[in-house]
Write a structure and sequence with these properties.
47% of the residues are buried. It contains eleven helices and ten strands. The strands form three sheets. It has a four-stranded mixed sheet, covered by helices on one side. Strands 2-3-7-6 form a four-stranded antiparallel sheet, with no helix packed on it. Strands 9-10 form a two-stranded antiparallel ribbon.
């Protein structure tokens, strides 16, 4: 486990008590049953921003605290435990990262303080098909006067239905699948030609498909360098993957804790089921996998904070390991709870559904195993 400093310990403990008190699983269930179209509670998001969570990555000069990725990971782990739906992943992690890595001073001054205050919801629009494939970007951005004209579609954009700012990965040259030729654009979600279709997802989170029809943006909308956005996009995605892995780890931890409590209290055939050796073996397997996954996640987040040169490998390792982990633990949670685990009255199904949705976000386990091997030269 990572050795935390005093500030990190305080933030983690504060996050733990806040989610238990203000955002337990019952709150998520209520959000789901209310048919909330946003996919998150805006009042809860306001409180998160007031606690400084939206600005953890943002430097002090832009209104944040600049405490780094491991610190944000600690918060995400706690929100993952209670399935708290919020723009932390889309806005405070992914979009903020893109702006920090690629933004010029004017862009940072315009957007980062608003994100830190919780006033601006921003997201990254990458994928266009059913699977994560950044290299297959086809959405076109063609030169138009001093700016560009965007045409194409993006699918499964996190918080795409509520975002004020969309960072769009577009193709300015080459064909889909080609290396190079990608440019990131800062697009106002309310711009003429942008249409959004909110989706009903299995895990009840805010996701949308976006269509861009002759959307005009100025030259100042380019994030980073035109035609050279591949590196910026990959670096942003790696940081998003590591942060998402931290949230998934929290989910898996909670699923395991709930299952373990059940094994210690459920009586069958006159004895506690936790005394059955077959169930003990399965619990031991989950525990060791959880510890291994934690090492991978914290290793990736610490590598980002120290700007190591193996961030890409470690991010893929973390996402692959945790993807397998949430799959295993959420399945075991349902199975070990028996009949009650199959009902909507129990929380097991909520964790299982979230696990499946997150496993696919920013690349599934098979995608990252393949990428990890490729990065290591296999």
């Amino acid at each position: 486990m990572a050795v935390l400093n005093e500030e990190q310990t305080m933030i983690r403990d504060g996050a733990k008590s806040w989610v238990q008190e203000k955002s337990p699983v019952t709150a998520f269930r209520k959000l789901r049953d209310s048919g909330n179209a946003d996919g998150f509670d805006r009042a809860a998001w306001k409180e998160m921003a007031e606690m400084g969570w939206a600005g953890i990555l943002i430097p002090e000069e832009f209104g944040g605290t600049g405490l780094g990725y491991l610190t944000l990971g600690l918060v995400l782990e706690e929100t993952g435990r209670t399935l708290t739906a919020s723009p932390l992943i889309s806005t405070a992690l992914t979009a903020t990262t893109a702006l920090l890595l690629g933004g010029n001073d004017a862009q940072k001054k315009k957007y980062l303080p608003q994100i830190a205050e919780g006033k601006l919801i921003a997201t990254l629009a990458v994928d266009e098909g059913a699977h994560h494939a950044p290299e297959k970007i086809a959405l076109k951005a063609e030169k138009s006067g001093s700016g560009y004209k965007l045409n194409g579609k993006k699918s499964f954009v996190l918080d795409g239905g509520t975002a004020d700012l969309v960072i769009v990965a577009a193709r300015t040259s080459g064909k889909p699948g080609a290396k190079g030729g990608i440019t990131l654009f800062l697009v106002d979600a309310k711009a003429s030609g942008v249409s959004r279709e909110k989706l009903k997802t299995v895990d009840s989170r805010g996701v949308a498909n976006l269509t861009f029809a002759n959307v005009e943006v100025g030259g100042d909308a380019v994030l980073g360098a035109a035609d050279q956005g591949d590196g910026l996009l990959e670096s942003t995605l790696d940081r998003a993957r590591a942060g998402l892995a931290a949230e998934m780890l929290g989910q898996a931890m909670q699923s395991f804790d709930v299952t373990l409590d059940y094994l210690k209290t459920r009586v069958q055939f006159g004895q506690v089921i936790g005394t059955f050796q077959a169930l003990q073996h399965r619990a031991a397997k989950m525990f060791t996998d959880l510890e291994l996954a934690r090492s991978c996640v914290e290793g990736a987040l610490q590598a980002i904070d120290r700007d190591a040169n193996d961030v890409a490998q470690l991010a893929s390792l973390a996402k692959a390991k945790v993807g397998d982990l949430v799959h295993l633990v959420s399945n075991e949670m349902v199975q070990m709870h028996g009949g009650i685990g199959m009902t909507d009255a129990h929380d097991a199904g909520l964790y299982l559904k979230r696990a499946r949705a997150q496993e696919a976000t920013f690349g599934g386990s098979s995608y990252h195993r393949d990428r990890y091997a490729t990065l290591l030269g296999y």
